[in-house]
Amino acid sequence: MNKPLSVDANGKLRIPSVEELGFDPQALRRKYDAERDRRVRPEGAAQYHDIEDDLAHGNDDPHVSERIVREPVHETVEVAILGGGFGGMLMAARLQEAGIRDFRVIERAGDFGGTWYWNRYPGAQCDVESYIYLPLLEETGYMPKEKYSFQPEILEHARRIGQHYDLYPRSYFQTQVREQRWDDDAAEWVITTDRDDVIRARHVVVSSGSLNRPKLPGLPGLNTFKGHVFHTSRWDYDYTGGNPLGGLDKLSDKRVGIIGTGATGIQCIPHLGKAAQHLYVFQRTPSSIDLRRNSPTDPDWWRSQKPGWQKERNDNFTKLLVGVPVEEDLVNDGWTEIFKSLGQLQDSTGAIDLNDEELKLLGEIVDFQHDERIRARVEAEVKDPDTAEKLKHWYRPWCKRPCFNDEYLPTFNRDNVTLVDTSDFGGVERVTEKGVVVGGVEYELDCLIFATGFEVSRATYTRQADLEIIGRDGVKLGDHWAQGMRTYQGLMAHGFPNCYHMGFTQTGYTPNFTYMLNNQSLHLAAMLADAQARGILALEPTQQAEADWLALVTAPNAMTEYLANCTPGYYNAEGNAKANNDGFLQGHYPEGGLAFYEMLDAWRASGDYEGLAIRR
Asked: Could you give the domains of the chain?
């Protein structure tokens, strides 16, 4: 854009013409609304089912050949950590640094890694730069191979952290926590598992992750399909051949269908297109796909980094997200390009003090410019005009997680790949013995793959974690949160002393999950070490503190309106975010992730634990 926005002599924002912009904002608004409305389903998130409801053994662990044999454990520890993904590992590392070594990590998988343990589909890759995403790089001395790491390297790094911090002897794998129950007399949690373990813990940190429980669309007839079927998070390499880097040689004579074109589908579909006899991609809503531009790590650049560089780089990335000026964009990629656009455009107007309506218009124009560029890329890379049109997204950038990939769009130029657009029919109609039906047409398949993601609703938090949390007076956390999540600082809940929740639980949002987890673990480790030193038995939010926090994070804001106008997805609870405040991008600290963690630091430094009842 050649600076079509400016201010007039009175300092008012001049609305640019259609000719200056190169597009008609009003026409795009109508198009976006129409595309959203025809994808909204009345059942909302209920259109998806638990994977175990439709696939026998669909949630089993395919990565272990033998179950660990051990005797039940009966012990008492200072801290129990539920979950062995990066959140749980960071918590364990930061506890040790804070002087607490009496802890246990309990994980139902066969190893550390969390989502990177389960998600081993071909092409699995982190969409956030590895230098800020992979935690504890300075502490472990590891240099990532590329700017954006693939799954095998990320899982290897999780194991590296486990070894570096000596976490393996302190962890129970292949162990599912069934219940944690508060013993008020002892001021301890009593944890029971599927191994008949009974573990008492002064404190429990729940880090079960946001992406751990696979979901499937509730399709009639799924159980009648006679071909092979699996979810991408439980990829069956015995059937497909190959490994997470590709080479799916056993599919050369197979007709494969895949449902889902979000971040996972974008990454594995190019490998399926190369390998399958024929691939049918069933798409309801296309993703916005920008260039990836991956590159090897420069060893000289790596060696030039000064101590503290990873925190500095993460803070730099997060500042750009919330519009805080920085001298240099250290990450400089597709994410930060989106972040910087609004600030750059605002500067180009010469205006400093725009009102809310002007800022809203400015933000919309930035979004439209971004979207127009992405749609132009589709036209340039996909040869068939009809297919290209179906691959264009019609929603603003933060309606769904942006995708970055260089191989996805060219895959649809292959003769053996067919895009089946289901948006006119409300999605896939049904599954038969032979395949999938869309708009009355049956597509015969040998294999059906679901790239349909995970449960992320806060309303089903305890079900996602697959455990029962029972607090004071026998109250279940699921009941306490029956009308929606209620926390203080996103980390604790009234009636559940000494129980802490890590993740996207009414905290500060950032697209880099590990930045959030690292800051939460630093905060909790410091708080628990201080409580131990001061002889504090229990910490619990007051009812008023919880109510005040809930009011803060659920108050209507610009994101509320933004998401309400989005196409359905998990970011807005499948179109119902405005009604129940359960969208993935809602219920967060309104000033953003950077301000949230600065607030926690100041709150902790005050030493009085405002908002908490303290029991000694």
From this structure: 1-46+216-293+333-453 (3.50.50.60), 74-213+456-555+590-615 (3.50.50.60)
